[in-house]
Specification:
By secondary structure, the chain is of the alpha+beta class. It has 7 helices and 12 strands. The longest helix has 27 residues. This is cAMP-binding protein.
């Protein structure tokens, strides 16, 4: 199956003209991964970036004592492995599928050629990388210096920015997100029982109601304002 969507449908690549992508589409195919399959390991060559057609991918690394640190989780339409664009030769993290996942790989040579041909595209790439680094840096800082409840509140702010909207009829703020509770626990560096307990605590405080892929913040809730 040829990868005919990546440089058109993904927001990062939406600025490209279709005829530019036509020069490359025959050379790219989807790669299928089952749950828990590794896409790359630490120290692997960094010669590609990856675009997710379907499924979810976890990015992380292991500490010297063997603990897993989750840096990010990506879903449909997301890009990962982007540090190869700025000269990373070997991976300093792993990427593993969290579900059955379909991915299109693009070689760094292809991306660099596209960047040379399109200055606007090149600027968008570097802006994307800068924002991605800033987001990861902020998340790691939260993990190091805040308690679990504070981490959850910061994470809810992040989810609100990416997936939230205001319901005109009820005045509630609704967050429709792609994460399971296990995903959230991994990102927050805690356990599922602890996270579930915090959601119940926030519910009892009248802050929110948690559903599987939806979080409803109570009307006039100011928790995310700061």
């Amino acid at each position: 199956m040829t990868c005919t969507w990546s440089l058109i449908d993904v927001n990062l690549f939406s600025i490209l003209c279709p005829h530019k992508y036509a020069c490359y589409k025959e050379n790219h195919t989807f790669h299928k991964y089952s749950k828990e399959d590794y896409i790359y390991f630490e120290k692997d060559n960094a010669d590609k970036i990856y675009l997710i057609e379907s499924g979810k991918v976890k990015i992380g690394y292991y500490t010297e004592d063997g603990r897993e640190i989750v840096k990010s989780i990506h879903g449909k339409g997301d890009v990962f492995g982007e540090k190869a664009i700025i000269g990373e030769e070997n991976r300093n993290e792993f990427a593993v599928a969290l579900s059955d996942t379909s991915i299109c790989c693009l070689s760094i040579d292809t991306i660099l050629e596209l960047m040379r041909d399109n200055q606007h595209f090149s600027l968008k790439i570097y802006k994307f990388i800068g924002l991605r680094f800033k987001k990861i840096e902020r998340r790691l800082s939260i993990l190091l210096f805040k308690d679990v409840k504070s981490r959850l509140i910061e994470f809810l702010k992040e989810l609100s920015e990416e997936y939230g909207y205001n319901c005109k009829h009820t005045g509630e703020h609704i967050i429709k997100h792609p994460y399971t509770q296990k995903d959230m626990a991994s990102l927050l560096g805690t356990s599922r029982p602890t996270l579930n307990g915090l959601f119940n605590e926030l519910k009892d405080e009248g802050v929110l109601v948690y559903y599987r892929n939806e979080i409803i913040l109570s009307k006039n809730q100011e928790m995310l304002a700061s």
